[in-house]
């Protein structure tokens, strides 16, 4: 009998070591009912990490200058869109495309990010998932998004800062394209005219979709004829544009939209930012990564090419979805 205890002790120790080695982002599996709820983090959890002075923690505020200066999470580094957009000259005049691996490596290392860093991204509205997607594309798949964004942080009564933190120590993360299929361009979107090849979701607002509004940067009003409307905001709470609905609510929306889980899912908006909101929701729900694709050039790229078809007027497509 006595001889069994060392064996049991070793088994317990092995279990403890195994749990300790589990990815930090797996602690919240099932949050809000999502299969990948670990991709979200609450304000309370983030505050605990900050209070614990976790040296691996890197917080990114995906906000513009005004949003950041109105009060940000202490210790968070501002990363606005220009910091990770490729130069227009390298994208044939299409703005908003993601910088290359070398550029992203420089950005990440400047933030002090290493391979094992605990990266949390937050925003005011919808930019955090663009950075989440960029990290995923370049090989860091454990980045978490703050559910509720800066609004949830402030409503929890936590303090904010006005001044930016001191520059971080240079990190060692090296960006390499890990999921090439998560980023697609115009030829693949053109091929979706054949519905058997996948579903295309237009994540712009209704006025853009109907051709009633042309946002700065785009060249023509309208929509891609075979794209279905799915406004990015339908996956978030009306009272807080930074907070996700529950998995059950999101699933109900996808059912109403007519999502076919067997098909590949493609997303676009004006410049590949809002589209990542929808893509992230599908990811949270457990959809295979190899079936989720962000059209990086989005409407700016499509509208620039006069040879590509467009439609205007919502009466042309009765499938326009208003899910909420």
What would you say about this model in short?
With 324 residues, this protein is of the alpha/beta class.
C-alpha end-to-end distance: 64 Å
Q: Give the overall form.
A: globular
Range of helix content: 25-40%
> Helical element count?
11
Low-confidence segments, ≥5 residues, pLDDT <50?
1-24, 316-321
Give a count of the beta strands, DSSP E runs of length 2 or more.
12
Largest β-sheet summary: 5 strands, parallel
- The overall average pLDDT, rounded, is 89
The radius of gyration computed from the alpha-carbon positions, rounded to a whole number of angstroms, is: 21 Å
Strand line-up across the major sheet: 1-5-4-2-3
State which percent range the strand residues make up. 5-15%
Classify the secondary structure makeup into a structural class: alpha/beta
Q: Helices and strands, in N-to-C order?
A: HEHEHEHEHEHEHEHEEEHEHEH
